[in-house]
Structures are given as C-alpha cells and as structure tokens.
Amino acid sequence: MAKILSVVNQKGGVGKTTTSVNLSAALAMSGKKTLLVDIDPQCNATSALGQSPAAHHGLTGTDSLPDSIVETDVPHLGLLPGSRSFHDADVLAETGDRSTARVRKHLDSVMSEYEYILIDCPPSAGAMTETALTASTEVLIPIQCEYFAMVGVTQLIGTIKKVITATDGRLTFGGILLTMYDESLELTREVDEEVRDFFGDIVFESVVPRDVALCEAPSHGQTVFQYAPRSRGAFAYTQLCMEVLQRD
C-alpha cells in the first residue's frame, strides 16, 4: 500500500517542485515503484520530467486513473501530468465532500500499484492544496532558508491541522525540509536553528543546498540525477531519499 505525500508550501520559489521531482526520482531509482502527481496548473513538474501537460487532468474525470499515467525516462517512475485547463483547475479547487472524495477515490484506486505517490501542489494554502492533503497520508513541507520562512508556514500548519482533524488522522506530518541552504550565511544558520527548535524531530537532517544544477536540470526535461549526477543537489536528494526510507 502506497504512502501518499503532498509536497506543499503556500510560498512560491521554495523548492517545492524541485523536491517533488527529485525525491520521487530518487525513490524510484532506489527500486520503489513511484508515481508523481502534478496538480499545479503551471505544470512545472510535468515539464521537468520532459513530458507535456495533459488536455484534461486525470483527477477531474471519471476515467480510470491508470489510463492517464505516463511512463518517464526514470525506471519505476510514473507521472500523472498536470493540466493548464482553467476548467480542470476549477474542478480541482472545488470545495466540499464530493470533490475531495473524487480525488481520494482516484488516488486510492492505484495505491496498491505503487509504494510512493508524491503530489506536487500549487504555491497556495487554498482549496486545491486542501483537496490534495485530504487524499494524502503524509505532508512534506520545503522551507527556504530566509527571513520570512516561518511566517507562511504558520498559516499552512493551520490548514494541515484542519485536514488531520477532518480525515480522522489519515494525514500525518512526513517532515520539513530546509532548502536553498547556504551554510556560509549567518541567516541560514539562524533559520536552521529556529526551525529545528520549533518543529523538533519532524525536520529532516538532510538539507538541500543552493546548486545551479537543480535550477538547470528542468530546462532540459531531466531530473538532477540525469543532468548532473555528481552535483551537490543530486547528493542532497539521495540523502533525503535515504532518510524518507528510514522513517518508514
């Protein structure tokens, strides 16, 4: 039975999609059958894997979900492509039990086929992210090492707690990941200490450094492991993958 991890942060530019793509690739490369679900209308996770957005999102209709899943160049990694359709975005952002039940039913239908399902959410704490959280078993929050890191997370934690209550504990905290880490900066060290003091053991020991390879890889439709396998970014996501597996 798969673990379903939503990768969320209401702030953009924190490494959310980078984490979704490269952690899912690392899990697949470790031999775990993995599915990456792109629900962000920007479809960046889809293009980062060299795929094209779908005309209609697989989570919005009644067709069997496996019919919408495509294989990627990474062994054991499947992708449910995102869609830029305004209609699909509206459907995924619908509130209410009917909408969340549909998404949850779709994802539950393939849980036996995968060991990990990662959902790349839009940079928002709105209805679309809440729907993804309702269908998930864990939430992973990337936090950029900057001054306002903790501000947006506080509101996001409120949304997560609301979903945990509504789903009778199906959703749990999978972890918090520090990204764009520059150990030479005093600010980075201060944010690191503050986040670990506040959240404790749910913060991953692994951190993701600033690395140009992580920025360049998506423009080539590749994961960092394909584009620059010896880069600091590739090493960081390998370490994160190992930590995720050890927490199981």
UniProtKB/TrEMBL annotation:
- Transmembrane feature ranges: none
Which Pfam families does this one have? AAA_31
Report the domain of life of the source organism.
Bacteria
Positions of the AAA domain = 3-171
PANTHER family registered for this protein in UniProt: P-LOOP CONTAINING NUCLEOSIDE TRIPHOSPHATE HYDROLASE (PTHR13696), PARA FAMILY PROTEIN CT_582 (PTHR13696:SF52)
Q: What is this protein called?
A: Chromosome partitioning protein parA
